């Protein structure tokens, strides 16, 4: 397994260590708004263990993916609500 | 004659059950100028009404059901201008999906019977189905698009019908010649009793052949635009009108929130409301056969509800045999959200000695009345 993988966060290229979660990669890219609530409020990870659902982002086109439960893989496309 | 403590000697009519059927009946009885009280053992729309899908659909598989669903759909359309936004009316139409050529033959028959009655329907080939609903699996034979069908959020419709109606918390344990008696020993006197107790109706009237038929549903997170029409497999009728103890059918509904409701199952002889994992799995696997991408979506919640079913799949609307003052509006199985309005109009016309707009005879409770 490679030591590093390359992902894209809202179009921005980022190299992270293998084993990094998508949630950490999003933070590393300087993005703090993971998603917006129904009324437009900013949301970001709370529990970090897959329960609170606040860390949802779109991963490789799949909306509502839990970024804290998903490990980065080479070429992964992550989109947040910005 | 009645119990010792008459609560309200003034009600003209008491409706048992605050599901959508009872709520609709109460709404129209009140419009007749009657003083109406609704008695509900649980919460408003806490029975099948809150558990169902809210698809307003015309069904053509037997003439009487066709009349009642068509009449009801027209009544919903008339109500549209006054329904509040919470009812989430969505004129999304129904797409009946045909998996193979054999089912396509069924599409043509359905098309003929709908258009004969002036309904707007279109036959779609496999390609048009794929264009209309990109999330369906490729290679389906085609479908029938029925534009007049729609979706509502039934609990809010129920609450709307009950505006200004006197709703009381209590369980009716007996229906007497002069009214109803409640579990707490109190009673309510009235001229007219309407039993709209859904799947529990035969607990009050053991001679009435209404039995619970359990169903499962799942709801997903918000995926706006993922599905555009209410999707139903053409084989649905086999599940709905067959009487096997257990069946599932592909049935997916887009909600205005972007969520998807995934159904459905049918099960007799079960009284526990617990989710039955093996049956839920079977239901979801059926859905995946038609829409493989559903596997990527997250389901937020699963639940069950009990449809009030009858041996001939038709509701009981009309006077109770052997009684002068008791009327039935129950037994709507999987169509009660749709047919609540038609039912209430029919019932109230009968109560008021008017000739109903549609023939009430196929719905007469006598046919479901066992001797003894
Ligand atoms: C999974 C599922 C999906 C469905 N999808 C659809 C759909 O898409 N379209 C459609 O048209 N229909 C659908 N249905 C069917 C529809 O939900 C029912 O036909 C309809 O809700 C029946 O309404 P009701 O008012 O008769 O019964 P209920 O909503 O069950 O109301 C009866 C009420 O009576 C009360 N009650 C019972 N006994 C007593 C008593 N002794 N004293 C006081 N109160 C009492 C209960 O607490 C309950 O609130 C679906 C049903 C299910 C389960």
Summarize the structure in words.
The complex is a heterodimer of chains A (82) and B (372). Chain A is built from one helix and seven strands. Chain A is mainly beta and 82 residues long. Chain A has a single domain, classed as Ubiquitin-like (UB roll) (Roll), CATH 3.10.20. Chain A has a five-stranded mixed β-sheet with strand order 2-1-7-5-6, with helices on one face. A two-stranded antiparallel sheet of chain A has the order 3-4. Chain A is globular. Chain B has ten helices and 19 strands. Chain B has helices spanning 20-31, 48-51, 63-79, 101-116, 126-132, 154-161, 201-204, 236-241, 277-290, 336-351, and strands spanning 13-16, 36-40, 55-56, 94-98, 121-125, 142-146, 150-151, 166-169, 172-176, 179-182, 187-189, 192-195, 211-222, 230-233, 246-254, 259-268, 299-309, 316-319, 326-330. Chain B has an eight-stranded mixed β-sheet with strand order 5-6-4-14-15-16-13-17, sandwiched between helices. The radius of gyration of chain B is 21 Å and the shape is globular. The model of chain B is unreliable at 1-6 (pLDDT under 50). The interface between A and B is small, with 5 and 7 residues. Bound molecules: flavin-adenine dinucleotide (FAD). Flavin-adenine dinucleotide is lined by residues 16-22, 39-42, 46-49, 51-55, 171-172, 196-200, 204, 215, 217, 263-264, 305, 307-308, 330, 332-338 of chain B.
The CATH topology of chain A: Ubiquitin-like (UB roll)
Number of helices of chain A: 1
Q: CATH class of the largest domain in chain B, please?
A: Alpha Beta
Q: Tell me the number of helical segments of chain B per DSSP (H or I, 4 or more residues long).
A: 10
Radius of gyration of chain B equals 21 Å
CATH architecture of the largest domain in chain B: 2-Layer Sandwich
The CATH topology assignment of the largest domain in chain B is D-Amino Acid Oxidase, Chain A, domain 2
Tell me the count of domains of chain A.
1
Strands side by side in the biggest sheet of chain A: 2-1-7-5-6
Q: What proportion of the residues of chain B form beta strands (DSSP E)? A: 25-35%
Helix amount of chain B = 25-40%
Largest sheet of chain A: 5 strands, mixed
The poorly predicted ranges of chain A are: none
What do the pLDDT scores of chain A average to? 95
Query: How many beta-strand segments of chain B?
Result: 19
Determine the N-to-C terminus distance of chain A: 32 Å
